[in-house]
Write a structure and sequence with these properties.
Blueprint (H helix, E strand, L loop, with lengths): L2 H4 L5 E3 H7 L4 H9 L15 E3 H19 L9 H23 L9 H18 L1
Antiparallel strand pairs: 1-2
C-alpha cells in the first residue's frame, strides 16, 4: 500500500494492525490516541479499538507538520495559519510526487539500496581502477 492510498482508503483496522502498518509498537499507538489520534471505537470487552486508516494518516501528517513548525527557530511564531497550511500542502504534494515516481519505477526505496550495492560492487571493482 502506498502512502497516498492511506489518505483515502476508509479501511478500519484494529490497534495492533495500525501499529503494524506504521511499524511501531501498540504502546506507541496508545500514545498517539492520548495526543488526539482519532479512533472510531475505543474498544471494549466485546472487541478491540477500531481506527479509520485514512483518519489516522491525515492526523499523522498534521502532527508532522505541527512538529516541524515547532522545530523552526522562531520562524513559526510569526507564521499565519495560511502559511502553515501552505507548507502542509507543499509537503503533501511532495509526498504524492515521490509516491508517483516510486510506482513508475523512477526511484527506489532506501531499503533496496543494499541489494543494488551487491549488484553494482563487482562493476565498481572493475571500473574504479580504470577511471
Amino acid at each position: 500500500m502506498f502512502m497516498s492510498d492511506l489518505g483515502n482508503s476508509g479501511r478500519q483496522l484494529e490497534r495492533s494492525e495500525i501499529a503494524s502498518l506504521y511499524n511501531v509498537t501498540v504502546s506507541t499507538v496508545d500514545g498517539w490516541v492520548a495526543r488526539g489520534c482519532p479512533q472510531i471505537d475505543g474498544g471494549s470487552k466485546i472487541g478491540p479499538a477500531q481506527f479509520d486508516v485514512a483518519a489516522v494518516f491525515r492526523w499523522r501528517i498534521g502532527r508532522a507538520v505541527a512538529d516541524a513548525l515547532m522545530a523552526l527557530d522562531g520562524d513559526a511564531a510569526g507564521m499565519t495559519r495560511e502559511e502553515a497550511e501552505g507548507r502542509k500542502a507543499l509537503a503533501e504534494a511532495r509526498l504524492a510526487e515521490l509516491d508517483r515516481h516510486e510506482r513508475a519505477g523512477r526511484i527506489m526505496a532506501r531499503a533496496d539500496l543494499p541489494k543494488l550495492r551487491r549488484i553494482l560492487d563487482p562493476f565498481n571493482a572493475i571500473m574504479l581502477p580504470v577511471g
